[in-house]
Amino acid sequence: MHRSDVLIIGAGPTGLVLALWLSRLGIRVRIIDKTSTPGTTSRALAVQARTLELYRQLDLADAVVKNGHRVAAANFWVKGEPVARLPLNRVGEGLTPYAFLEIYPQDEHERLLIDRLETFGITVERNTELLGFDETGDSITATLRLPDGQQETCQACYLAGCDGARSIVRKALDTGFPGGTYQQIFYVADVQASGPAFNGELHVDLDEADFLAVFPLAGEGRARLIGTVRDERAEHAETLRFEDVSSRAIGHMQVKIEQLNWFSTYRVHHRVANHFRTGRAFLLGDAAHVHSPAGGQGMNTGIGDAINLAWKLAAVLSGGAEARLLATYEAERIAFARKLVATTDRVFTFVTAEGRMADLLRTRLAPFLLPKMASFETSREFLFRTVSQITLNYRGMPLSTGVAGHVHGGDRLPWAHDGEGDNFESLKCPTWQVHVYGDTSDEMIAWCNEHHLPLHVFDWRPAFETAGLGRNGFYLLRPDTYVAIAETCSDPKVIERYFSHHGIRPFFGKS
What we know:
Shape: globular
Protein name: FAD-dependent monooxygenase
Helix content: 25-40%
GO molecular function: monooxygenase activity
Strand content: 25-35%
Number of helices: 14
Keywords: FAD, Flavoprotein, Monooxygenase, Oxidoreductase
Cofactor: FAD
Number of strands: 26
CATH class of the largest domain: Alpha Beta
Largest sheet: 8 strands, mixed
Organism: Pseudomonas izuensis
CATH architecture of the largest domain: 3-Layer(bba) Sandwich
Radius of gyration: 24 Å
Structural class: alpha+beta
């Protein structure tokens, strides 16, 4: 019987990233997908700064930035005229090495992940479908339908459902998926076109007519259009063609379509599963949560799920932690998913609301407020922090403790950069490690040496104070670069007690 450590169902970005991280940490994975080929359309587009930071651990960030498109600004249109421009080039400057909005279409993104996964000797098994599974003692027994129609029974220590909004895994677990569906019909079209909205920037129409956003892709004149379909046309969504939806907002924004590469219509859902884990089976990505495309959060959140779960599964499977560590996956990720759905719901409702008052808010109030907001550094920074996911934290969660400087246990470690370098270089290695900014004790140095726990001591510099880091204490960092302990003293017994309390024996992945 075929046996793996983790059986992954679904080879979208979430499943691929989970397979990559686990393989990087020496875990045997098997990844299947019922489709015959990878996606060929640019569904999700934005790769947020936090995702790029984490991608450094697999040497993926540079490839995404090199092959993607950096968006210089967002423009807002009313009545056929651009009324506000929000610069994005350096919107997150000083906060992250990736202080910009990166567009990298999902189909290209998946190909990159598949190529990297193959360097670990792992190939996605296509035309292979999960029929069902049972948990038996210390493993899961799953039944698969193979490409030739034959059935196979296989075993795995754990199963990960990364199989999308219609997840077979979620249905098998009988986990509720509460939420709803927005009434609007959306369309998405990849086009080659020209006009003022095809200058490599993001353009959004706020008019009374159909909502439309133009997302630039790499290459001159390439873009993705996302828009709504209103009035009687929405009643025939299944049979709509591009010609049926392309007249109103597209005309307002002076878009001249030269070639249509792809077109589809869909409805947007907002749902979060009641549980992200049942026994040895986990839900990640769209199988666990779906929400509006507002802010480009969906794919990035799924990738965040994968990285959060990967290091925990690797620790447990390698003997580096007790199985109870896995309970923290749901606690940490479900809270974020619920908050995200609520936030994107508010934005989505404002952008797509119908009626005279909604139109007035969008066409009169928004054009007045947007330039005002864009002129304030604090408002630009707040917007970037929120959308980029660098403020996502696990404060108050079981694995998070302490405060040092402005940094709490559970926070993403702040990025500090000056002429002498930055403090993120050591984070490329997905291991537990300790950071000290200033001085530390001989006891801390000796204890970390004895326990083979990497210790990085940085001479105190103004850049660290600016970033909010505390002086002469320490930060214990998890393998996913979030702060486990923020402490003002330099006593290694604090770390020892933490590991003992949580049943963790630090796991070190292959270098």
